[in-house]
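Page 47, continued from p. 46.
Same chain as before, 206 aa.
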Amino acid sequence: MSSVWNKFAKIIRMELLIAAGLLMAALQTAQAHPHVFIDAHLDVQFSADGLSGIRVEWIFDTMFGSSLIADYDRNKNGRFDPQEIALIEKQAFSNLVNFNYFTYLINGDRRHDVRQVSDFKASIIGKTVLYAFFISFALTWDEIDTTLVIGFFDKTNYCDFKFVADKPFSVSAQPDIDISAKIVNTKDGWLRSRAFEELRIQYKRR
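Result:
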């Protein structure tokens, strides 16, 4: 295990986990290479009134996931119990509010910060860990631009995100709304100097 990872593992036990690791990486080098790799899935939920929220799933790489399991499966029963999940949320997730949960939403030409999430869950999947949470984000149909963009981005490059290869997203919509959605690779937009993936959604009423 590299010295960089040893430092990061210590940060986990010091209850600063991802957020502190990101700050450390940013201080060490402006051109840091990723240390945590995350596969993402999005479930974008629309109602009769418009966008109601987004269900997010992150699957960590096995090295990082194994560290989470070692630190938080305290009774070693192969799953996270409710008390362990609450501890993970407190020590290894809630601080990400300071980074907008690495999530950005662009509605037309306006970028929205992600400041509120709910229904956090953590589960052991094989040798790694899955995080799931709901972004409470409501826009009426009149407020939604014809193009809505959702993605994940860590500007320090400590975490690297990509969408899962199989069924990377789902979109629920109303019968009178036509929605098209696709994953695109891009460098365009706000503060983007490297290629990454994002979900672009377009809609129109019948």
